[in-house]
């Protein structure tokens, strides 16, 4: 009645068995490398670039200063930079100069009131990279 012969799956079973054994070998090797790294106490290196600053929280996440206590005005020396609001935008300036070193495209009115107050007083920065980091917090 039925003249069809049963298919031989021996070849496919052997291929799947080899793939499974290969996967187990790769997993065992990866596990061994992980254990060896733990044994030596190796720690991953921090990724730090010009555009990334490893900070715990951005300034927008800090609570606004209370209105009852006046905020201290930061000391602005002749050296360094000041991050402040000028013409409705956040920028980095050298103390006493009106030309910005860096300027952000963000409109200051979009920021929380506490941040606007801090920026109006001026946030001092010793280096340009520190000032850039502060500016990036507001972008």
The number of distinct structural domains comes to: 2
Distance between the termini: 78 Å
Shape: elongated
- The tally of helices reads 3
Provide the gyration radius in Å: 30 Å
Mean pLDDT: 75
Secondary-structure class: alpha+beta
- Trace the largest sheet across and list its strands: 3-2-1-4
Beta strand %: 15-25%
Beta strand count: 4
Task: Provide the low-confidence segments as ranges.
Answer: 67-77
How helical, in percent, are the residues?
25-40%
Give the H and E element order.
HEEEHEH
Sheet with the most strands, sense and barrel status: 4 strands, antiparallel
Characterization of this structure:
The radius of gyration is 30 Å and the shape is elongated. The protein folds into two domains: 7-44; 59-137, no CATH class. It has a four-stranded antiparallel sheet with strand order 3-2-1-4. It has helices at 10-40, 113-121, 128-137, and strands at 81-86, 89-93, 100-107, 123-125. The protein is α+β, with helices and mostly antiparallel strands and 139 residues long.
Which properties best describe this structure?
single chain, 139 residues, alpha+beta, 2 domains, 4-stranded antiparallel sheet, 16% strand
What's the arrangement of secondary structure elements?
Elements: H1 10-40, E1 81-86, E2 89-93, E3 100-107, H2 113-121, E4 123-125, H3 128-137
Antiparallel strand pairs: 1-2, 1-4, 2-3
Summary, kept brief:
Helices cover 36% and strands 16% of the residues. It is built from 3 helices and 4 strands, in the order H-E-E-E-H-E-H.
């Amino acid at each position: 009645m039925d003249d069809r012969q049963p298919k031989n799956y021996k070849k496919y079973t052997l291929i799947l068995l080899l793939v499974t054994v290969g996967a187990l070998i790769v997993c065992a090797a990866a596990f061994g490398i992980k254990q060896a790294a733990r044994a030596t106490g190796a720690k991953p290196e921090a990724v730090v670039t010009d555009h990334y600053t490893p900070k715990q929280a951005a300034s927008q996440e800090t609570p606004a200063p209370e209105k009852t206590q006046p905020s201290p005005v930061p000391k602005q020396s002749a050296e360094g930079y000041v991050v402040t609001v000028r013409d409705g935008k956040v920028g980095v300036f050298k103390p006493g100069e009106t030309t910005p070193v860096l300027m952000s495209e963000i409109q200051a009115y979009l920021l929380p009131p506490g941040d606007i107050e801090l920026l109006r007083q001026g946030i001092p920065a010793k280096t340009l990279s520190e000032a850039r980091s502060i500016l990036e917090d507001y972008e």
